[in-house]
Amino acid sequence: MAIAVVCRLFTMKQLSNVLTLGNLFCGAIAIIFILHAPQYIAEFNGTEYTVTNPEPIYWASALVVLAGIMDFFDGFVARWLCIQSPMGKELDSLADVVSFGVVPGMIIFRLLRSAYMQMPDVFDISYLNLAPALLVPCFAAYRLAKFNLDTRQTDFFIGVPTPAVGLLVASFPLIMLYNPFNLAHWLQNIWVLYVIIVLLCYLMVAEIPMLSMKFKNFRLAQNWPRLLLVVLLLIGIPVLRYAVVPFLFVCYVIISLIAPPGKATAVNN
Fold first, then answer.
1. Hey, which residues does 48 pair with through a beta bridge?
2. Hey, which residues does 50 pair with through a beta bridge?
3. What is the average pLDDT across 67-80?
4. Of 88, 160, 223, 249, which residue is 20 to 30 A from 186 by alpha carbon distance?
5. Greater confidence, 141 or 125?
6. What is the total count of domains within the chain?
7. Residues 6 or more apart from 187 whose CB is under 8 A from it?
8. Domain range holding 245?
9. Under DSSP, is residue 154 helix (H, G, I), strand (E, B) or coil?
10. Is residue 225 domain-resident?
């Protein structure tokens, strides 16, 4: 009986860490899907092209979403059970850099490669042209390390949180598949992708207070930006479908700039 009680307490104490490791597991599986997206040779007008089967990348997108859900609940459970610890904080950052740093970087790498495949001199393209995609995981790692040392952040973020970046990039393959509002055309443009890389890297490390979605009370005056984002999400889903993710990301940044949350102080990143 005593052993069962001890095991139960141990399990409860480690529950948030188990969720964090689930986040990491999803990120690792997503990487496998991206790496093993099968390729085949297709001939068009007498020219051979390497074509990537996109289906595994769609699964990677779904796994990033699942990782985001686990990332949200690991912090929620830690606060609810009062089991927050420095170990959990470090573990959370290590998981996030994989799921919301490495995976998005690899997705953009694939998108860049696909965009270059449409160019006449595709076989002369160097991997150096694709390397900027790997700046995303580098800046994500820097942002997470900075977050762990930054004592200013408790109720708000400084810079866009890595899960937001991860979920944004995870929507790109789905937008390519369903092509709402012909957005797939823009995601096949190398210069648009380079601009996205620069913007995401900047926003992650910028000294800009960003809104967190954690409700501490139900006062409208303090929570209207969060409620506005929720309303925009509910309205946007049936209208925009998968395009709602970049739309909501842009709204999140704009609302944070228009209604600065003030001096940021640490939320679970």
1. 43
2. 41
3. 83
4. 160
5. 141
6. 1
7. 111, 115, 172, 175, 176, 193
8. 13-258
9. coil
10. yes
